[in-house]
């Protein structure tokens, strides 16, 4: 039976993976429906009907359609409060406010400079776009200041909002993942003792590991499709065997319909 | 004990104050002068480690980020004043969606304009016309989507005024006054109708009267 929850967008997108991680933390089955941004599908009239800004992801749950990953995550935590990680958005109003404060800090202070760095350092080279050295330098300096604040906070507290992993920490995973694993600026995190400790803990959560695997699996599927279409079947076969290996790691594949 | 709001002369704290007035919550203000760098003192950084405004103190409890503060109080005082968070889970979802749109689509280009034209301007920095043009173009595209939305919906999240609409007031005010870009609102029929409605609410008029903007 098809899952009621649908997420539209490529899992490579940081905003999409934010929502996937939240759904996985809350044990909510979902369907992931790809949107091919390289082909401009996100700017076509059909997609603009559900997301008028032409951005990803969009989320559907029965009669509800929503966009903006942090709004979607808040909605998931509200509707599915009693399943999965029940403390993800706190269990009382004061806890929730503290989590919300750090979720806002992520959105307002961490996200802008880290998004620029992720785009310039991880995506621009892949898209064969010229990097803007000035922009990289400016945003590195901004992010360093923000991470200094985090370093102090994480010396006093295990996670950002307190002793437990919450939506506030989760929201940092997508940009953090690219910075640490796909650019040479990982030392922004890893040179700060408390931030490094925190990053190690949040990045090793089951839900995040699954989200990363899902993105990798879909990437491999796209490669298989492209290789087959261009007649490179030997390459496609090697990709296929990689896909099988990835699927073995992804133990709850039955909850995800592609 | 009455909740204290820091920095009423600036825009983001006004989100909080407008919310308090709508929810009939008593409050006090504590002035912070950003031009004199009072937001970078060690005492202030103890309250708000990023050195930005607002921060609130409610007895021993401290909270920052204006949208986190407004959500907390709108929920806590749900049964009094204006309903700002929708009446159902679905309505709440739409309020959250448009609050995020305000934060990530409306705010960034407008904030850059305010900082560069008004604050840097006051500090004697020469305006960069290319930067101003780019910000205006980004904002124009966002307002086009708003105009489409508001042609079929009275307010952003639906039929009722919500936190999502409220959140646009402080920086929107700069756009139509000291930035001199009122035409961006007036040229869009439905955005114009919506802006007139929300900016004429008694709560907003009171905020401007009691805490006039600093630039």
Task: Give a verbal description of the structure.
Chain A: It comes from Sesamum angolense. Chain A: Belongs to the GST superfamily. Phi family. The complex is a heterodimer of chains A (258) and B (215). The longest helix of chain A has 34 residues, at 93-126. Chain A has 258 residues and is of the alpha/beta class. Chain A has 11 helices and 5 strands; from the N terminus they run E-H-E-H-E-E-H-H-H-H-H-H-H-H-H-E. Chain A has helices at residues 14-25, 45-50, 69-79, 93-126, 133-156, 167-170, 173-182, 187-190, 193-203, 206-229, 233-249, and strands at 5-8, 30-33, 58-61, 64-67, 256-257. The longest helix of chain B is centred in the middle third of the chain and has 34 residues, at 89-122. Chain B has 215 residues and is α+β, with helices and mostly antiparallel strands. Chain B contains 10 helices and 4 strands; from the N terminus they run βαβαββαααααααα. In chain B, strands 2-1-3-4 form a 4-stranded mixed β-sheet, covered by helices on one side. The mean pLDDT of chain B is 96. The chains are: A alpha/beta (258), B alpha+beta (215). Chains A and B meet through strand 4, helix 3, helix 4 and helix 5 of A and strand 4, helix 3, helix 4 and helix 5 of B.
Main features:
heterodimer; A: 258 residues; alpha/beta; 5-stranded mixed beta sheet; 11 helices; 5 strands; globular; B: 215 residues; alpha+beta; 4-stranded mixed beta sheet; 10 helices; 4 strands; transferase (chain A)
């Amino acid at each position: 039976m098809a899952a009621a929850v649908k997420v539209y967008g490529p899992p490579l997108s940081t905003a999409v993976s934010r929502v996937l991680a939240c759904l996985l933390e809350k044990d909510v089955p979902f369907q992931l429906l790809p949107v091919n941004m390289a082909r401009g599908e996100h700017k076509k009239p059909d997609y603009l009907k559900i997301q008028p800004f032409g951005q990803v992801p969009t989320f559907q749950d029965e009669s509800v359609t929503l966009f903006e990953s942090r709004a979607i995550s808040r909605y998931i935590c509200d509707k599915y409060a009693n399943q999965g990680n029940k403390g993800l958005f706190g269990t009382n109003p004061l806890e929730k406010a503290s989590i919300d404060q750090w979720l806002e800090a992520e959105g307002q202070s961490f996200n802008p400079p880290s998004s620029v760095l992720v785009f310039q350092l991880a995506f621009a080279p892949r898209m064969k776009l010229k990097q803007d050295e000035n922009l990289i330098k400016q945003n590195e300096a901004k992010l360093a200041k923000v991470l200094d604040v985090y370093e102090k906070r994480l010396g006093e507290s295990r996670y950002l909002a307190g002793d437990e992993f919450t939506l506030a920490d989760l929201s940092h995973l997508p940009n953090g993942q690219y910075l640490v694993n796909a650019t040479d600026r990982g030392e922004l995190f890893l040179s700060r003792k408390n931030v490094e400790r925190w990053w190690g803990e949040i990045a090793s959560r089951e839900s995040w590991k699954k989200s990363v695997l899902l993105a990798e699996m879909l990437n491999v599927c796209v490669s298989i499709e492209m290789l087959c279409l261009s007649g490179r079947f030997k390459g496609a076969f090697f990709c296929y065997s990689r896909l099988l290996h990835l699927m073995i790691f992804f133990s709850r594949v039955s909850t995800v319909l592609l | 004990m009455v909740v204290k709001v820091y920095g009423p002369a600036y825009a983001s704290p006004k989100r909080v104050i407008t919310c308090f007035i709508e929810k009939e919550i008593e409050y006090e203000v504590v002035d912070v002068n950003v031009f004199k760098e009072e937001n970078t003192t060690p005492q202030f950084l103890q309250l708000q480690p990023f050195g930005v405004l607002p921060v609130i103190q409610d007895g021993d409890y401290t909270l920052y980020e204006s949208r986190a503060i407004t959500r907390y109080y709108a929920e806590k005082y749900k049964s009094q004043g204006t309903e700002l968070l929708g009446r159902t889970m679905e309505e709440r979802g739409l309020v959250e969606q448009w609050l995020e749109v305000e934060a990530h689509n409306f705010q960034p280009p407008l904030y850059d304009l305010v900082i560069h034209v008004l604050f840097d301007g006051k500090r004697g920095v020469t305006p960069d016309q290319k930067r101003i043009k780019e910000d205006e173009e980004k904002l124009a595209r966002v307002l086009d989507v708003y105009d489409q939305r508001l042609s079929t919906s009275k307010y952003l999240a639906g039929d009722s005024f919500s936190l999502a609409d409220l959140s646009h007031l402080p920086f929107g005010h700069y756009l139509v006054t000291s930035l001199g870009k009122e035409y961006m609102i007036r040229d869009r029929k439905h955005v114009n109708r919506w802006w007139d409605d929300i900016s004429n609410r008694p709560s907003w008029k009171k905020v401007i009267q009691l805490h006039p903007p600093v630039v």
